[in-house]
Records
---
Amino acid sequence: MLTRYLKATLFCAAGMCLTACDFEEKNLNPNESTVITPGPLLTYTQLNTSVDGHTKNMQIGCCMMMVQQTASLESTEAGVGDKYYMMQAPSTSYFLDFYSTAIKNWREMEYQAAQKPEYQNMQAVAKIWGAFLFQRMTDLYGNVPYTEAGYGFRQNIYKPKYDTQESIYADLIDQVKEGISLLNADKPAIEGDLFYNGDIDQWKKFGNSLLLRLGMRLSKVNPDLAKATAKAAIEGGIMSEAKDMCRVKHIAGGRDEDKNPVALRFQKDNYIGQGKVKISQTFMNHLQATKDPRIAVFCSLKDGNADPSIQKGLPNGYDKNTISTNSDYTGKLEDYSNFNTNVILREDAPTLLLMPSESKLLQAEAALRNWVAGDPEALYKEAIRLSMQEQKEAYGVSISEQQVDDYLAQNLFANAASQEEKLEVLGNEYWVTTFMNGYESYANWRRCGYPKLTPTHYAGNESNGQIPRRLPYAIDEYTINKANVEQAVQQQGADNLNTRIWWDVAK
């Protein structure tokens, strides 16, 4: 299906993804433009979540490094999240690309889907998928353009206002609920869907799982809304099987556009040969201490050897000169583990967006807080089994039942004495489960504070030696949309790495 819609999506990218300046400069007449149906627009926005730049710069270079799943000795873009510096460049790039591509196309999809009754399911998907896109964006930056975003083409809004994250979250919850209610198997099919091939039941599960994620994100700042939203999501039916996962599938060989963008970037920039990105010591130590069988899925040495006993994590916060001051450093970068070259870095490895195990862990937390019915320990164990099964579904790598049983036999959850200690076990597991979905690893760490991480103190860091709490706005906004971005800063706080977003409260 990836190839099937590619030509259509490229047309969308060229015709619908113009910046405000480009639109005015080229003086395009929307009355003469070709009408685009919602299907190709959905395809394009789905693909956009896994494009090369997003993967390399934001997910791996920033998010995964800030939560110490990965590490780097690079003093370039490959290591910015490891050292909390030079983060304006990837932050600006991601912000501008999001609004000039994904959101402009999504907004047109939303518009087209609302024009005909037979597009009811497309309209439903537009609401759910739009909520996913904006959730990721607001979680990274806080207050962002939302209600006026993407309306340059239809309404000539070239300087959109910034909405508060509180109001954005309230509306995202409403949009997902409305989208789920509109899904109807008796109506014409969903077109252009790379995730589920138009399966209505799967979209309902995805919508409810997203709703659960949105609700639990508010656990500290608005527990009443968090509880009500989590309850509604679980009662509606969340993901429960490995096959329910939301992913972009990729194809090995052929065109670059079809390949997994992580693998593509590692090939093109020779990340493996040069050792630019490694598994972090913090993450590796946790996997080894808990005898986690997923270590053989996630990690390998440069030659592809995935033997868990020889894997080694690289300390965070060093460059090629300062690493010699670390007494644990062997002196050879090739001694340290990479993403598994035969699994994670395969050209046909999927891009992961939302996993059933993630949802089950959030359900376990909701049950632990007495917000929903259910046995927290049983739900935790179910999440573990799901995550192990997901490795087979996503990568074709089987983890035996004996390995799963041995992992569960450690009774990490049962042995936790207090509710807070049990929340720590859930937070640690979420960190592992969302490996290769750094956006969510980073967001959940800020929400719950787990795993307990020690910040790096690289010379020249931009956060006073603290793990960043958000990303700075695109520098271009201070020229193009000055009044609105300055108002957002006034409402939210200084536009720097240390300002906490609305749901990230210190308690």
---
Amino acid sequence: MPTITDHAKSHPTRPAFIMGSTGEVVTYAELDAAANQVSHLLRSRGLANGDHIAMMLKNCREFMEIMFGAMRAGVVFTPISTHLKRDETAYIIDNCRAKLFIASDSLADVAAEAAAQTPNLNHQFIIGKAAEGFDDWHDAVNAMSDEPIADQSLGVPMLYSSGTTGKPKGIFRAPDDESLDAPHPMKLVGAYYGFNEETVYLSPAPLYHAAPLYYNTLTLGLGGTSIIMERFDPEQALALIEKYKATHSQWVPIMFVRMLKLPEEARQRYDVSSMKRAIHAAAPCPIDVKHAMIKWWGPVICEYYSASEGVGFTLIDSEDWLNHEGSVGRPLIGVPKILDENMNELPPGEVGQIYFAEVNRFEYFDEPEKTEQAFDARGWGTIGDMGYLDEEGYLYLTDRKNFMIITGGVNVYPAEIEGLLVNHDKVADVAVFGIPNEEFGEEVKAVVQLMNHADASNEMAEDLLIWMRERLSSVKVPRSIDFMEQLPRMDNGKLYKRHLMDAYKAS
């Protein structure tokens, strides 16, 4: 695959990426030079091929420069969620064996506290305002040469699981080919979705997550242009599509929900006809939400199912989905298998744990037991999701195994209930999970974020319960509803459900 350097030589003034809020343009020539400076800085601080760095950064120009600099220095880089607290951040810095740590100035307090707990960390940098204990990133990198280092090799990301179901785990895959022009891990996916040098990719999610990271590196590897939003805003996303005539984008369902709940006038104000592929994943998308997006944007809505671990990959386009509502498609990589608790294959239509055969192994960094638990004796891999296959081999998700509620011996999948509730015109967001019940083992609890928190009341809770009883079997209807002004979602749209569950178990 061509490198950033190749594009810098062939079209140096073409925008590599543009920051959404400021309109700052970084050309391929500028990105190539900055990446060289980063790689020199890493070498100057003693980092060699295979060493690790950690970065806790908001979406910014420097994130991209550091990422590409690490990738040509053979350095393993770990982006850390900007929403983690001190102990969680310290755990990741320590666990990934980072020798160097870079943070945004707005995160300086957490970064400093976390760094103080990681004595093996050798170098700390801040981007922005000065912070005690941190060297200035710009001062250091600007002192470096913008020529290539002599010993370039391919560095890779090591991402950590979100921690939505437990302690974060580092997901490590050594590169099959250490040359800088090695095939991109998303080459097959990119070809399916039509990524090429003409692609204008809108990136609305945090860069520290797998999908935006890989789709951005894919876009730039092909010579296209990325439009990077500093943070997701539903109307700004529409405006950026129109302004830059974006051709591709990647979303999570809650982003669709928030765009759909904009006033009709705002939704119709922007021309989104340039969009060829609007790709979504990360969580099951409520059927009504997807129907609404296809009606609005046309048959450009595409879905895939995968994970940071890279265990399998399914996909489905709008036309196929309309004939298989709720499906996440058929496999592009791996062969899906549905297994019961005894590791036996289940027939079509029966829910079990999703495994994939014929996939490459990954490892959870420094956690061999957890790595082994992700694979069965046949080498089939799983991340713990639940679902089923239909007679045609289309895969359907039900929920995470960790989130399944067993009430009175009946399995209840929260995603189904959440998908219904979020379509209520008073509801902005919802989380459903199980809480202890002496008689039934667990009961269904819903925590709701209303469009207007001032509407929260016992009467509103009862109205929602009545509305659900008309649409769900009684066992699936929550026993009770609580209200929160803001649910704990990460910037990529994933719900930090574990935090809610832990709080209710402790109370």
